[in-house]
Amino acid sequence: MQGFVELENDCLSLRLSTTGGAVVDGRTRDGRRFLRRHDDGAFEVLRSACFPLFPIGNRVEGNGFELAGKSYRFKPNTAEPNYIHGDGWLAKWNVADASATRVRLVFEQPRPVNSPYIYRAVQTITLDGATVTLALSVTNLGNETLPFGIGFHPYFPRTEATRFMAPAAAWWTEREGYLPGVRTPIPDSADFKTPRRLPRRRLNNCFEGWSGQARIVWPEVKLAADIAADPVFSRYMLYAPEDDASFFCLEPMSHTPNALALAGPDALHLLASDETLAGAFSITVSDCEDFQ
């Protein structure tokens, strides 16, 4: 059975689903949204406001990799041909503990299902004043050393005047199959080192060399969000579809999408049995009069 958890303080209100460990709504107490709201109807994680990524973020081209002379395989977990976003976003989570401003959710994979991984994931979401912090850890419960990666997939409201800033050093082009193409300097049209509007075209690109800092401004509602991510999240995916201008995604990630195919297991975090990979990012909202 699907369940929901409500978090609230004097500044913010957050709603979460135990299905997918997903945030389904994030807003200020006066009703201004800083995360997308799940629309009415049957719950679908891909229409939520944020969900966690692990033990691999994004797609695994070819559904496999080799490590120490052994081949490991994934099974596609959606209608797409490639395994995508890991397991937790499609599964039921348990509420380990909860209060008015904090919840800890646990997901455990005791045996391989769509991937060779056996692990435990813990997601802790906390409200502190005008800041929401999302923390994620994954622990290898298997006997083999395997490459792990973590991330988050938040959806932010997009308006005509929305401004976005997230400085980075380089980006990956996109090729067929929604996969990274080549790593190049960031083109001027997609360089967000200073606040600017998103271009009127599709974006589905990984930005590397990220400081972990980003800022979003919604002038129409005089609201801003400052994002701060732990150093483990040294890159982000930026997704803005052409056919829906109501949202965009800034996805903190610990590894480049399709890193297993591009660079091999060493491009992720190799965890031995009982080792843990962890990281957090926060969103702090504030009133903003910046209309530039």
Structural commentary:
Helix content is 1%, strand content 47%. The protein is mainly β and 292 residues long. The strands form 7 sheets. Strands 10-11-12-13-26-22-21-17 form an 8-stranded antiparallel β-sheet, with no helix packed on it. The chain starts with a strand and ends in a 5-residue tail after the last strand. The longest helix has 4 residues, at 259-262. β3 and β4 (33-35) form a beta hairpin. It has one helix at 259-262; strands at 4-8, 12-17, 22-28, 33-35, 52-53, 59-60, 64-67, 70-73, 83-84, 94-98, 102-109, 119-128, 131-140, 146-148, 151-152, 155-157, 163-165, 170-175, 179-184, 203-208, 213-218, 223-229, 235-240, 247-253, 269-271, 276-287. The model has no long low-confidence stretch (mean pLDDT 95). It contains 1 helix and 26 strands. The chain is globular. Keywords: Isomerase. Its EC number is 5.1.3.3. InterPro entries: Aldose_1/G6P_1-epimerase, Gal_mutarotase_sf_dom, GH-type_carb-bd. This is Aldose 1-epimerase. One of its GO terms (biological process) is carbohydrate metabolic process.
